[in-house]
Amino acid sequence: MRLGLIGLGRIGAFHAQTLTDLEQVGSLVVADAAPGVTAEVAARLGAEPADSPEKLLAAGVDGVLIAAATDAHPALLRAAVDAGLPVFCEKPLAAGLADARATADAVRGAPVQIGYPRRFDAGFLAVRGAVAAGELGRVHTVRSTTLDPAPPPRAYLAGSGGLFRDCTVHDLDAVRWVTGQEITEVYAAGADRGDPMFGELGDIDAASLLLTMADGTIGVISNSRYNARGYDVRLEVHGAADSAAAGLDDGLPIRPLGPGALAPAGPAHAFFMDRLASAFRAELAAFTELVAGTRPSPCTVDDALAVAVAAEAATVSLREHRPVRTDEIA
């Protein structure tokens, strides 16, 4: 099939390589706001360059992937859907909740997949399966962790929507997806103790969230932009009958201390490109199935909107120093 990819920054360039390696993809058309970037990626991967998103959408593609900056997602997503194309759009739907709601309303019912790769990680899938099968009994606690090894560039942060919308949303989606429960209340604490750019941008560099799920399950989320040992993505689910975890592999960037403690064999995961490489490949392979019409969307705009509501609740909670129910936001 012939696919188009709009946005060739950090994640877009990574997706371009992954798509090129998928046997389902016969040709790839790429576009970026920077013409030089478009030309470089096209030449390196043997893709076809397009001068603009409009030209890409008119280039006879079977589906389109959107990996542009967050604030460009709504317009590009609507344009692709209006062109009658199946769409993969990186998270989040939009930088703000109002735009996310409007975008979801505009494209609901169209074949749209939102990019949450942990849904395709083998460990996360296994934990979700164990929960769904009742192997853990009554689930009482779920813990999700995302620790970046270093902050992203200032230019990226400025358009990211902030820690909750850029990073925490992966944990919010994972907790909601693995438990099968909606998030009903959020209490958030955050810190800005690193680079001055976080405060200047009205952002934070570390956060912890306490969630209440619809059935009373407690969720705990930990995030940081500073984890020098490596990229740490984990999930733990604790039930009355058993406990299970994902991400406790040899690349876990942690140094166990104490008698008998066993250190991971290493090397530690450096970033999402290596920690989630297989998940990204499976995610984009799933999109080719959506394009072919052989499967429904594995992550819908309504899934992304539920996460956006929870992220907004976290934002309000941090600002007002109180628990915030998601129905206050929704």
TrEMBL record:
It holds the Pfam family GFO_IDH_MocA. Residues 2-113 form the Gfo/Idh/MocA-like oxidoreductase N-terminal domain. The keyword Oxidoreductase applies. It comes from the Bacteria. One of its GO terms (molecular function) is oxidoreductase activity. The keyword Nucleotide-binding does not apply. Residues 124-241 form the GFO/IDH/MocA-like oxidoreductase domain. Keywords: Oxidoreductase. Belongs to the Gfo/Idh/MocA family. This is Gfo/Idh/MocA family oxidoreductase.
